């Protein structure tokens, strides 16, 4: 192997180590310096040191520990330098000597860094997903801090310019610092509120991978995989939170359908038409196990536990005909009470249509026609078109499918909707016309 090839291999290993260890390193440093932005800078310094030294010295036996040790030394040096500067300014200003503040010497610094790392990662999760940040910033910061993704990778994943992502990350770190957000896991009601934000961000990342809002691919497995990893980490850190296990269960079961969701040319395959033999049984078993853990914790089921129960109902059926649609409709009714939203109501309409017929479901969908948040949501006309088609109102169905195709920014979805529009048009043309004689 040539020197260039060896260096490329080492760089690949460094990249892999960084993805695995970034969150742990940044979290440990953030607990010490109390600043997420500074912690990332120190971790990046350690990464640069690895890029400079490992091609010469070789990859250490425990590369994560090596990076953490370098990061610790940089943090300790930074704190001591700041303390010396602060003492010098006080000496000049007050003309008197002052000793270091209690708890700020090197020994105490090292002691702080030796605390359990699991608590640090949990603190980092709650900090990166703090509600003081807008949702796009939470997503970017979470993927950057906890996923170890570069700004370029995040930008490509969400189809936005790299400078936009970089600005979001910089502004997020500045906002956290200016707002004085503590690096801690909140307690009581505040923890419950912040946990909802954490789960929202993780599920948003998963959903963007599961059904991309734009681009030429329906599924982005890298985002699904990253969201699942974050969910599993959070479940290990917060084992008594039912909603965390509920989210993991939901993502596991939905991820099980990945191979069946697209055809040979990348075209979308609707849930009812999927070959369930392609569903990944390992993901399903993991999902069922996570759902069982959530249910054993007791208490009224939250939104993610309910959605996981709905996904489990689909996974339990050997085919679409065996699906217990009455149970799914009932679960959606509970979900609509616990976490009401237009999207939940639209999903409930689909379940009602399968359980009790398209006419009743159409009434639910028509009631959503004036909902502002669904004005640009392509699934509203898509669902309405499907119900109209089942009712034999083919011309109206065609119009709805064409409207849905115009709204979506995902190329495979648009192609499928246009196909359904054409099929509706053919059905309308072939239908016998009353009053013309036969």
Helical proportion, percent range? over 70%
Low-confidence regions = 92-117
DSSP strand tally: 2
> Which geometry do the CA atoms define?
elongated
SSE pattern, N- to C-terminal = HHHHHHHHHEHHHHHHHHHEH
Number of domains: 4
Rg is 26 Å
Structural class of the helix and strand makeup? mainly alpha
Number of helices: 19
Instruction: Please state the average pLDDT score.
Output: 84
Strand order in the largest sheet = 1-2
Could you tell me the strand content as a percent range? Answer: under 5%
The main β sheet shows up as: 2 strands, parallel
- Note the gap between the termini: 80 Å
SSE topology:
Blueprint: H1 3-33, H2 36-57, H3 63-94, H4 106-113, H5 117-128, H6 135-145, H7 151-158, H8 162-178, H9 188-210, E1 214-215, H10 221-237, H11 242-255, H12 281-296, H13 303-316, H14 325-338, H15 342-356, H16 358-366, H17 379-390, H18 394-407, E2 409-410, H19 411-430
Parallel strand pairs: 1-2
Helix pairs in contact: 1-2, 1-3, 1-5, 2-3, 6-8, 6-9, 7-8, 9-10, 9-11, 10-11, 11-12, 11-13, 12-13, 13-14, 14-15, 15-16, 16-17, 17-18, 18-19
Organism: Actinomadura viridis
Keywords: DNA-binding, Sigma factor, Transcription, Transcription regulation
Domain RNA polymerase sigma-70 region: 25-84
């Amino acid at each position: 192997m040539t020197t260039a090839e060896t260096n490329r291999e080492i760089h690949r290993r460094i990249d892999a180590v960084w993805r695995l260890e970034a969150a742990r390193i940044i979290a440990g440093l953030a607990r010490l310096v109390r600043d997420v932005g500074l912690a990332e800078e120190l971790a990046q310094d350690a990464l640069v040191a690895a890029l400079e030294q490992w091609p010469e010295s070789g990859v250490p036996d425990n590369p994560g520990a090596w990076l953490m040790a370098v990061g610790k030394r940089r943090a300790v040096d930074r704190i001591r330098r700041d303390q010396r500067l602060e003492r010098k300014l006080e000496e000049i200003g007050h003309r008197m000597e002052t000793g270091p503040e209690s708890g700020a010497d090197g020994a105490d610094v090292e002691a702080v860094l030796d605390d359990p790392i699991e608590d640090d990662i949990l603190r980092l999760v709650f900090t990166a997903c703090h509600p003081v940040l807008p949702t796009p910033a939470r997503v970017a910061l979470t993927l950057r801090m906890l996923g170890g993704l570069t700004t370029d990778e995040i930008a490509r994943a969400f189809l936005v310019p790299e400078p936009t992502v970089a600005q979001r990350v910089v502004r997020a770190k500045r906002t956290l610092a200016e707002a004085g957000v503590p690096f801690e896991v909140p307690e009581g009601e505040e923890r419950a509120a912040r946990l909802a934000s954490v789960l929202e961000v993780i599920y948003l990342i998963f959903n963007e991978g599961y059904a991309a809002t734009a681009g030429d691919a329906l599924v982005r497995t890298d985002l699904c995989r990253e969201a699942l990893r974050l969910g599993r980490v959070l479940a290990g850190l917060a084992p008594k939170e039912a909603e965390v296990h509920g989210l993991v269960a939901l993502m596991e079961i939905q991820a099980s359908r990945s191979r069946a969701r697209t055809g040979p040319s990348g075209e979308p395959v609707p849930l009812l038409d999927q070959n369930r033999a392609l569903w990944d049984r390992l993901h399903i078993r993991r999902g069922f196990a996570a759902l069982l853990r959530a249910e054993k914790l007791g208490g009224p089921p939250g939104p993610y536990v309910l959605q996981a129960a709905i996904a489990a109902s689909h996974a339990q059926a050997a085919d679409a005909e065996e699906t217990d649609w009455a149970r799914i409709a009932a679960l959606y009714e509970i979900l609509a009470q616990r976490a009401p939203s237009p999207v939940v109501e639209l999903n409930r309409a689909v379940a009602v249509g399968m359980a009790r017929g398209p006419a009743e479901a159409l009434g639910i969908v028509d009631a959503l026609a004036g909902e502002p948040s669904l004005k640009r949501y392509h699934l509203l006309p898509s669902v309405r078109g499907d119900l109209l088609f089942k009712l034999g109102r083919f011309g109206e169905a065609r119009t709805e499918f064409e409207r849905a195709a115009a709204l979506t920014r995902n190329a495979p979805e648009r192609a499928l909707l246009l196909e359904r529009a054409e099929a509706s048009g053919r059905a309308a043309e072939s239908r016998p016309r009353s009053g013309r004689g036969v």
